[in-house]
């Protein structure tokens, strides 16, 4: 079986259910079709003192997009190799209207912000935590957070899914329904399920086209729309404990199996309690793209989080630049078990003997 890439959807649950309770841990929530939609909705809710946002320099360009579309001035702060924010590069900024921070890959990499968040708050900045990658981790969040946003659709097979939450205040929820994005992704997810079960190659092209179509719609109009009812039902039906457990088990299997493979440097040494990993992120040498290609020739698809957005200069953010150039995300999600992880380990282990690939590594 192939490993990685988009999820799929086996069952279309039609039963109408209430909103998933597990999202309530973030406060009053509104579910949107996408993370971008959640940010756009947030920007309708707030009136910051300055129309500016300070974002981490290690970020997905889709987070920058809604701020730019809404006329915000975007500045960035650097991120260390261990993915913690470089505090001095936060303090260099004046007139911050919105401050956005996040933990990466499930880990509380943003846990060093306590003091600086206090300072920002005292100068009236609105504090947002992007919990896309730490959605199922249960560590304590900052009391100073004014809002949470997330792209939920990154964690399971959902036609659509974003979240805006406020720990204290109500959020106005009169969002229009989305007509196209969720429908296209639903078709893609169902076709992918058919492909996974029947292994008919012709289906692959069809669902890949549909997934790209969905992404195009989002990048053209990152507006807030209400989540579709099927996605709502799926979110409600998900077994959170099972999801967390299987990701942790898979992560540990990879950690043990990849330990000792010289060209792989894990981003994190250990998994602290209450952490639910999103991927098993590693740093590779300058042959990352070839290694990634070899994996994909074995139907193991490892995403890169992320391509460096054009707004972030490689010269000004040298730490972030190195992360963008070297990081690779190995899937460890709930679709898979130890057998799949062992297959990844064995393919990577074989690459170590491939001198053309590994020789010349730093
Ligand atoms: C950390 C993070 N936040 C927000 C988003 C935006 O989510 P969406 O693609 O659902 O608009 C992304 C997208 O990749 C992301 O990686």
Describe this structure in words.
With 362 residues, this protein is an alpha/beta fold. The chain folds into 2 domains: 13-166, Aspartate Aminotransferase, domain 2; 240-358, Aspartate Aminotransferase, domain 1 (Alpha-Beta Complex). The chain contains 12 helices and 12 strands. Strands 2-8-7-6-5-3-4 form a 7-stranded mixed beta sheet. Strands 9-10-12 form a 3-stranded antiparallel beta sheet. A two-stranded parallel sheet has the order 1-11. Helix 1 (35-45) runs parallel beside helix 2 (61-69), helix 5 runs antiparallel to helix 6 (201-220) and helix 8 (240-258) runs parallel beside helix 11 (338-351). It is globular, with a radius of gyration of 20 Å. The mean pLDDT is 94. The protein binds pyridoxal-5'-phosphate. The site of pyridoxal-5'-phosphate has 14 residues, from helix 1 and helix 2. Pyridoxal-5'-phosphate binds next to helix 1 and helix 2.
Summarize the structure.
The protein is of the alpha/beta class and 362 residues long.
Question: Helices, strands, pairings?
Answer:
Elements: E1 3-4, E2 28-32, H1 35-45, E3 52-56, H2 61-69, E4 73-77, H3 87-91, E5 98-102, H4 114-122, E6 126-130, E7 147-151, E8 162-166, H5 181-198, H6 201-220, H7 229-237, H8 240-258, E9 265-266, E10 279-283, H9 288-297, E11 300-301, H10 318-326, E12 327-331, H11 338-351, H12 355-358
Parallel strand pairs: 1-11, 3-4, 3-5, 5-6, 6-7
Antiparallel strand pairs: 2-8, 7-8, 9-10, 10-12
Helix pairs in contact: 1-2, 5-6, 8-11
What brief labels describe this structure?
12 strands, 38% helix, Aspartate Aminotransferase, domain 1, Aspartate Aminotransferase, domain 2, alpha/beta, seven-stranded mixed beta sheet, binds pyridoxal-5'-phosphate
């Amino acid at each position: 079986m192939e490993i990685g890439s988009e999820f799929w959807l086996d069952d279309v649950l039609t039963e109408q259910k209430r909103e998933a309770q597990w999202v309530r841990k973030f406060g009053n929530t509104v579910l949107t079709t996408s993370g971008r939609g959640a940010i756009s909705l947030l920007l309708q809710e707030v009136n910051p003192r300055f129309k500016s946002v300070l974002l981490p320099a290690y970020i997905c360009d889709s987070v920058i997009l809604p701020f730019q579309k809404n006329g915000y001035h975007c500045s960035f702060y650097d991120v260390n190799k261990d993915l913690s924010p470089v505090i001095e590069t936060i303090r260099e900024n004046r007139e911050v209207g919105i401050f956005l921070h996040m933990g990466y890959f499930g880990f509380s990499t943003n846990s060093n912000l306590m003091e600086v968040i206090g300072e920002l708050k005292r100068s009236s900045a609105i504090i947002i935590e992007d919990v896309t990658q730490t959605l199922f981790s249960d560590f304590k969040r900052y009391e100073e957070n004014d809002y949470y946003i997330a792209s939920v659709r990154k964690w399971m097979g959902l036609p659509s899914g974003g979240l805006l939450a406020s720990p204290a205040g109500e959020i106005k929820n009169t969002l229009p329904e989305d007509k196209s994005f969720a429908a296209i992704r639903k078709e893609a997810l169902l076709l992918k399920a058919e492909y996974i079960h029947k292994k008919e190659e012709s289906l692959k092209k069809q669902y890949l086209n549909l997934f790209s179509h969905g992404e195009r719609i989002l990048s053209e109009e990152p507006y807030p729309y209400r989540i579709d009812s099927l996605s709502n039902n799926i979110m409600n039906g998900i077994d959170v404990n099972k999801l967390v457990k299987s990701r942790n088990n898979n992560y540990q299997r990879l950690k043990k199996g990849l330990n000792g493979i010289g060209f792989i440097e894990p981003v994190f040494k250990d998994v602290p309690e209450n952490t639910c990993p999103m991927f098993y992120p590693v740093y590779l040498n300058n042959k990352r793209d070839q290694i990634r290609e070899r994996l994909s020739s074995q139907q193991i698809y490892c995403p890169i989080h992320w391509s460096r957005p054009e707004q972030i200069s490689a010269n000004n953010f040298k730490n972030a630049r190195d992360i963008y150039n070297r990081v690779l995300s190995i899937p460890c999600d709930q679709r898979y078990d130890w057998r799949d992880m062992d297959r990844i380990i064995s393919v990577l282990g074989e690459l170590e003997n491939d001198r053309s690939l590994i020789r010349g590594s730093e």
